[in-house]
Each structure stands twice: as C-alpha cells, then as structure tokens.
Amino acid sequence: MEASSKVRVPRIAIEFCTQCKWNLRAAYYAQELLQTFSTSVGEIALVPATGGIFTVIMTHRNSEGQGESSTETAAEVTNTIVWDRKIDGGFPETKELKNRVRNIIEPNRDLGHIDRSLKKDIVQPATAEEPSKTEPTSQHDVQVNQRNVNCEDCK
C-alpha cells in the first residue's frame, strides 16, 4: 500500500521523545515558530518518537529552486537539520531556533529584538564562571548525550 500527499514547503518537523515527555516543549517551539513566521512556513509537524530524540528538521526548496512558484508545486527539496539535541547539546533557546529557521527561509528578514539580542550575546565574552553550553548539566544529560545510549526514561 502506498500513500502520497502534497507537502507544503518549507515544512518544519519537530521530532521529540514521548518517553522523555517532551511533548509540551515540542508544541511550544511549534507555536513560537508559527507566531513568528506565520504564512512563511508551509507547515509545522510534531513527530512523536522514542530514544531521547529531539530534532528540528526543515524540508525546503533548494536555493536554486526558489522563486515565485506556489508552495504546493513539485520542486527539488532538501532536508536541513535545524537543531539536534544530541549534536547541539540540549534544547535551543527560542531566539536561536528562530534565527536558524530565518537563515534558511528568509535570510534577509529582520527579526527585530531577536537579532539585537543575538548580536549582544556575540559581543559580550563569556566569563570564567559561566558553564559551557555543551557541558551536560545532570546525570540524565550525560547518559543521553552519548550517541548510542538512550535516556533512562527510554530504556
């Protein structure tokens, strides 16, 4: 049996671990992206999974395929990993997620206070007392950050 349907691009799929109970976090990010990008995105999907997964993947037209055609027409598309909790070290700040999405679908768009905040973060050097963003903060994170190890909730 085969099914087919039209996919509206850009499509953002938020894949999240239900065993880790990241449903609300995934829904929050989806709501924030819809609020910011509204009709600039074709759809946002919540994809339940297991195994400590939390990824944001965007399906979008290749840069040379972008033009004034409808979001529903057939086109060559690319999947881009916008955020992967295991690679990027935890969950994104909302402003960072919006920045990464914007850089793919509307690179010239001004995100206002988000852009100013991100520039401020770059200018200010981190102090020695601040923990590194990639360092695990708990035993749970240590176990989950290891590539082939599931979190305790997913075993």
Automatic annotation (TrEMBL):
<dbReference type="Pfam" id="PF10262">
    <property type="entry name" value="Rdx"/>
</dbReference>
<dbReference type="InterPro" id="IPR036249">
    <property type="entry name" value="Thioredoxin-like_sf"/>
</dbReference>
<feature type="region of interest" description="Disordered">
    <location>
        <begin position="116"/>
        <end position="155"/>
    </location>
</feature>
<protein>
    <recommendedName>
        <fullName>Selenoprotein W-like protein</fullName>
    </recommendedName>
</protein>
<feature type="compositionally biased region" description="Polar residues">
    <location>
        <begin position="134"/>
        <end position="149"/>
    </location>
</feature>
<keyword id="KW-0676">Redox-active center</keyword>
<dbReference type="InterPro" id="IPR011893">
    <property type="entry name" value="Selenoprotein_Rdx-typ"/>
</dbReference>
